[in-house]
């Protein structure tokens, strides 16, 4: 199967999701984790259902450590997968047993069939069983009379930046030039210390608003190992997942409509509503005024108030482990990870075009397709990948400068090139 660059990145992000706990040392028993991953069938982007061996996963870990996310992108190869059919006796047996296990998902049903020896993996894959049951209208589990209750246990990590939770809450209305505008607070909280790495109100609830808060949080408080978010569109962004993967940050998502699973950030928002919002003057006439008041309250009140679960204030808890925090060494490089990426073919004059803006690239890339990173809101700069995830700045074309610049002395003029061609 031939994949384009965007599809290959989808696969790379999926592979990183499997090995991220090994990269970040999130698990105590790597062998058990590998066995667990290899015992399941995975729905791989653009490839469908796949099983993996421990050797394959360890190869990915090694590749990521050597060359980063780009090394996890699949190389070109032919799809060797073969479809399998279910014969009549086996089909009848599956239909009969499906009635007995009507409450199970197809995945759990298939696992049970393997366990009971009804089917063998070489006889029928999960995908074959799923399609067979779907043709007979048996692919959905029967509804249960009573919804299962989630088994929740109170937990807290004992290391700073082991886990961050993130979310957004609706803030107070602003009255700007006589118009009423809603505000939104994006925030992240450290699970161990309860410190807020960064939070900020904005009049937008789009990806750029979330991204600016997350980037600032990383710069101020270091890199978390895991960031736990809901399923909102801004957190599902491919750009966000790719940037986190390059930073070795695992992104985990809560189940839909399960706010309780993000209890700590929800509790912080409750604190904001009860201890901060009542202090605000009315009416609020600017976003700057709102954020100024919020930052002051956050640093002087929330971060310095004794937390009932910690018996100390969040700031002191964070500082007590600050020596082991991995800080961002290059903030500018960090911001470039969150740039939009698109593919462009290099023109014969060693330029590429981005929405009507032309940029110069190295001449040896002429005719090749390259990945270009840029900020859609400010197309005055762009970067290309120079290998090993190193981004190289490319400059805009300035026609006036090119008209007077000294040419490469080794380059042939058009007339010379024609003469050489005629001679040979």
Question: How would you portray this structure in words?
Answer:
Strand 13 and strand 14 (378-385) form a beta hairpin. The longest helix has 19 residues, at 5-23. The model is unreliable at 77-83, 145-153 and 403-424 (pLDDT under 50). The protein is an alpha+beta fold. The protein has helices at 5-23, 30-38, 54-67, 88-100, 106-116, 126-135, 207-221, 238-246, 263-276, 287-300, 314-320, 331-337, 399-404, 414-423, and strands at residues 42-44, 48-50, 163-170, 174-176, 179-181, 184-190, 198-202, 226-229, 250-253, 340-345, 351-354, 357-360, 369-375, 378-385, 391-394. The chain has 14 helices and 15 strands. It folds into four domains: 5-72, no CATH class; 88-135; 163-324, Nucleotidyltransferase, domain 5 (2-Layer Sandwich), CATH 3.30.420.10; 339-404, OB fold (Dihydrolipoamide Acetyltransferase, E2P) (Beta Barrel).
Order of helices and strands: HHEEHHHHEEEEEHEHEHHHHEEEEEEHH
The CATH H-level superfamily of the largest domain is Ribonuclease H-like superfamily/Ribonuclease H
Rg, Cα atoms, Å: 27 Å
Using the coordinates shown, work out and report the CATH topology of the largest domain. Answer: Nucleotidyltransferase, domain 5
Largest sheet: 5 strands, mixed
- The strand count comes to 15
Q: Give the name of the CATH architecture of the largest domain.
A: 2-Layer Sandwich
Low-confidence stretches: 77-83, 145-153, 403-424
Q: SS-based structural class?
A: alpha+beta
**Strand order in space, largest sheet:** 7-6-3-8-9
CATH C-level of the largest domain: Alpha Beta
- How far apart the termini lie comes to 41 Å
What do the pLDDT scores average to? 83
Return the domain count.
4
């Amino acid at each position: 199967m031939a994949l384009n660059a965007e599809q290959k990145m989808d696969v790379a992000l999926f592979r990183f999701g499997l090995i991220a706990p090994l990269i970040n040392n999130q698990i105590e028993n790597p062998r058990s984790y590998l066995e667990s991953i290899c015992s399941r069938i995975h729905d791989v982007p653009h490839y469908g259902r796949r099983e993996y061996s421990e050797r394959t996963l360890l190869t990915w870990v090694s590749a990521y450590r050597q060359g980063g996310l780009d090394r996890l992108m699949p190389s070109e190869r032919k799809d060797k997968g073969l479809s399998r059919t279910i014969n009549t006796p086996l089909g009848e047996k599956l239909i009969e047993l499906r009635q007995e296990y009507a409450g199970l998902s197809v995945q759990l049903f298939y696992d049970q069939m393997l366990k009971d020896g009804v089917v063998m993996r070489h006889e029928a894959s999960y995908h074959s069983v799923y399609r067979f049951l779907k043709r007979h209208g048996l692919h959905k589990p029967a509804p249960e009379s009573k919804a299962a209750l989630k088994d929740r246990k109170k937990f807290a990590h004992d290391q700073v930046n082991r886990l961050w939770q993130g979310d957004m809450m609706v803030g107070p209305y602003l009255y700007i030039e006589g118009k009423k505008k809603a505000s939104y607070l994006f925030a992240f909280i450290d699970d161990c210390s309860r410190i807020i790495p960064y939070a900020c109100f904005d009049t937008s609830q789009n990806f750029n608003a979330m991204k600016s808060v997350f980037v600032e949080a990383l710069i101020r408080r270091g890199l978390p190992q895991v960031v736990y978010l809901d399923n909102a569109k801004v957190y599902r962004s491919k750009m966000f997942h790719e940037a986190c993967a390059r930073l070795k940050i695992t992104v985990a998502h809560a189940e839909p409509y399960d706010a309780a699973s993000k209890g700590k950030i929800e509790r912080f928002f409750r604190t904001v509503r009860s201890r901060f919002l009542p202090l605000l003057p009315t009416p609020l006439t600017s976003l700057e005024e709102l954020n100024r008041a919020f930052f002051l309250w956050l640093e002087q009140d929330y971060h310095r108030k004794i937390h009932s679960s910690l018996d100390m204030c969040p700031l002191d808890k964070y500082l007590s482990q600050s020596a082991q925090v991995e800080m961002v060494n290059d903030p500018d490089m960090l911001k470039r990870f969150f740039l939009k990426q698109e593919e462009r073919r290099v023109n014969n004059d060693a330029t590429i075009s981005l929405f009507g803006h032309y940029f110069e690239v190295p001449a040896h890339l002429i005719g090749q397709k390259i990945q270009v990173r840029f900020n859609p809101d400010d197309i005055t700069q762009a970067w290309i990948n120079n290998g090993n995830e190193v981004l190289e700045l490319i400059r805009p074309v300035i026609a006036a400068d090119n008209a007077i610049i000294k040419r490469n002395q080794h380059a042939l003029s058009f007339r010379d090139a024609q003469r050489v061609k005629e001679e040979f």
